[in-house]
Amino acid sequence: MNDALESLLDLLALERIEQDIFRGQSRASVVPRVFGGQVAAQALVAAGRTVPADPPRADGSAPAGEARLPHSLHAYFLRPGDPGAPIVYTVDRIRDGRSFTTRRVVAVQHGQPIFHLSASFQVYEEGLEHQEPMPPAPDPLQLPTPAETLPRHAAEGLLAPDVAERLLEARAAIDLRYVDEPPYATVGEVREPRSQVWFRTQGKLDDHGEIPRPLLDICLVTYVSDMTLLDSILLAHGRGGWAVGDVVGASLDHAMWFHRPLRADEWLLYDQESPTAQAGRGLGKGRIFTADGQLAVSVIQEGVIRVPRD
């Protein structure tokens, strides 16, 4: 485990300041605001820490201590976060049912809400099964690492050296490898609105503080899910994104459904596409597969995508 991953895990280890109130630290990202994936992951940690393990059931349908894990989240980004200030997360215990638990989380900075999340948790149960097949993708170990590609892109003049350096620093905890060139490397080339990346953490994981391992994996995948999902929108228009300054963008809302178990320290394929862009907004859809082809997560996000005016 490298220092960057340790730092990310510390970022997720929220301080409990009241029964259902938590405080999280923040840090600078590649843009002058808090990275949306960080806020979403911290809010999910806050919600998860208020979900108790199930007591034993008389009919034996759930063992004692069975953890309820998130099966979905729906979130809105309300205001840009200040990377220089802590974030306070207040959790509302909406419902604790027989099979499902619902939580609502509001993230506040400087007295104003910056993010709102609703999450639903479910005790594991057997049910009907089917899934879409995993799309073809190359072996991740055959793809170049960010440490190899970003300096090359800077040397070729595709990225400013300071931007490449900030990207490397911001993603140092995650081994994220593009299957094809990212948008900023093919500016002016209109491509199919599809993108694939493989990712995993830079080191093996274990339980971290009060975050049990299955929840930690889900929260880390939530963190990564906001990194590249809007890429496919840019590809359809030959735009490079914030990295080259030819669009202004920000996440508006974010939804995730967690279908099957996953491990964030093992390779996951993030298959992404954009069905539409209009009215200064674009929609990104993603599917996250385990290396053995299990569909683990579905993601949908809408973002602001504006072309700067003179």
Strand order of the largest sheet: 1-2-4-5-6-3-9-12-11-10-8-7
Helical coverage, percent range: 10-25%
Give a count of the beta strands, DSSP E runs of length 2 or more.
12
From the alpha carbons, calculate the radius of gyration and give it in angstroms: 19 Å
pLDDT averaged residue by residue = 92
Give a short account of the largest sheet.
12 strands, antiparallel
- Beta-strand portion reads 25-35%
Determine the CATH topology.
Porin
Give me the strand/helix succession. Answer: HEEHEEEEHHEEHHEEEE
Count of individual domains: 1
The termini sit apart by 46 Å
- Assembly annotation: single chain
Overall, the morphology is globular
Quickly give the CATH architecture.
Beta Barrel
What does this structure look like?
- This protein is α+β, with helices and mostly antiparallel strands.
- It has helices at 3-12, 36-48, 146-155, 161-170, 213-225, 231-235, and strands spanning 15-18, 21-24, 69-77, 87-96, 100-109, 112-122, 174-178, 194-201, 248-258, 268-278, 281-290, 295-306.
- The protein has a single domain, classed as Acyl-CoA thioesterase, double hotdog domain (Porin), CATH 2.40.160.
- The chain has six helices and twelve strands.
- It has a twelve-stranded antiparallel sheet.
- A hairpin with a 3-residue loop joins strand 4 (87-96) and strand 5.
- Helix 2 packs antiparallel against helix 5 and helix 3 runs antiparallel to helix 4 (161-170).
- The longest helix has 13 residues, at 36-48.
- It is globular.
- The termini are far apart.
